[in-house]
Amino acid sequence: MISEQLKKQKLFLKSKNGQNIFWLIGEKIVRLPIAILIGAMLARYLGTEDFGQWNFAITVIMLIQIIPNWGLSQIIVRELVISDSKEEILGSVFVVKVLFGVISIAGCILYSIFFANQKDVVGGLVIFLSIIFIFQSFDIIDYFFQSIVKAKYVVIAKLGGFLVASIIKLYLILINAHLIYFSLSYVTEFGLIALILIFYNQKFAISIGKWKFEKKLAISFIIKGAPLMFSSMAAWLYFKMDQIFIKEIANYAELGIYSASLRIIEATYFIPEIILQTFFPWVLKSLNRKKEFNRRLVTIGRHIMLLAIIISLGGTLSGKQLINFIYGNEFKDAGYVFIIHIWILNLIALKGIASRFLIAHSKNKAFLILNLVGVALNILLNLWLIPHYGAIGATIASLLSILFSSVLINFIFPETRELFFIQLFCIKPSFVTIKKRKNVK
Question: With helix as H, strand as E and coil as C, how does 175-207 read?
């Protein structure tokens, strides 16, 4: 029995999906300790105030970044899986991303002129960091490799850029550089990623010279992506709006404490995303067979949830000691934030399952509505809780808003009730045999 299981595992590791997961997880294994080490050194070097400013600038960039991304990633992966017009898809989406990238840079400049506080360096950081939007136009190559389940080349690109950027950050810390210079590491990282992706694309994929721009196709993607873009913006608002509120209601130091905890927790978010990214093309192949589609999605979801629960339990038991060890006594209050926030990983997993289900069934408007509900609830909870509990209040607000808008609300509407039961079945441990239920048809 054991030998048979070992044989199955070896066969899986040799398969395309197995190799894909190996590369994706391998990247995180290499990235995670380095990111934590450099992040801890950066936090200790900057202190809570400057670390809060750095993270606030990154938060602004992540908001504006939604425009060049335009909700296209999941749509394009799906289209590349099922369509034969790959050259037209790649060329059209690339032009769209470049155009929106330029618009986004202009938006960053306007933000820095009219909205940024001139007493700090956030405005300057935002302008320098916005250069990444042009480099991110080449993410279309990432989408293509996702569609053919070839993560190897994307992993090498991202890991290469990350390692060089980490060395730059370390050097800047050692020479006591001003905060503004750390934006150079961020821009360098994305620039290198783009260059390496281009290299692998020219060698192993469809050459950029063969990409074709089709105006009608580009317009259709803009139209299709619009609801998802607004959904992404809504998702950003209830994942990141708490940081805006902390800065406005409290101060940069409180934001620095909150961000220190969040940096470690966000490093675990890759787990559900890697598994979904690898196996969702397999799920999509059964899209026209509803019962089989749901069964495959539940199978993946249950394995994801088991891993998420194990990580959350471990984080709860060791959170305070971990934060104190990594960041030092100045960030000790981040330990309480960490213990609560680590459970959001489970909701991130369920939200990922929900987004795949809704997008696969072209329920983009439903996805948008659910995210908007989450935004409204998160804003109300933040306004209520942050004045009383600071960073801990923001964490509780995030947990409750994501729980309601990503899971509980699905039961209310007939259009998404099936999704609610799929999510419910995903919570069941993966080592238990799936039984047929009439709700998963």
Answer: CCCCHHHHHHHHHHHHHHHHHHHHHHHHHHCCC
SS3 assignment, position 430? coil
Cβ neighbours, 10 Å, residue 215: 9
Half-sphere exposure of residue 212: CA atoms within 13 angstroms, side-chain side: 7
* Residue 308 C-beta-side C-alpha neighbours within 13 Å: 31
The answer to whether the Cα torsion of 131, 134, 138, 139 is positive or negative is positive
Which of 19-23's residues contact partners 24+ apart within 8 Å by CB, and which partners? Answer: 19/152, 20/149, 20/150, 20/151, 20/152, 20/278, 21/274, 21/275, 21/278, 23/151, 23/152, 23/155
* Locus of tokens 């960073």: 391
What average pLDDT values come out for the chain (441 residues) when binned by 10 residues? 48 64 81 87 88 87 86 81 87 93 93 79 90 93 86 92 95 93 93 95 90 92 83 71 76 79 77 80 81 87 88 87 82 82 88 85 77 83 86 86 87 86 79 44 47
In the numeric block, which tokens belong to residue 417?
A: 């009730």
Distance CA 357, CA 336 (A): 34
Residue written as token pair 């913006």: 233
* Domain extent listing, the chain: 15-213, 239-441
Neighbours of 413 (CB within 10 A): 13
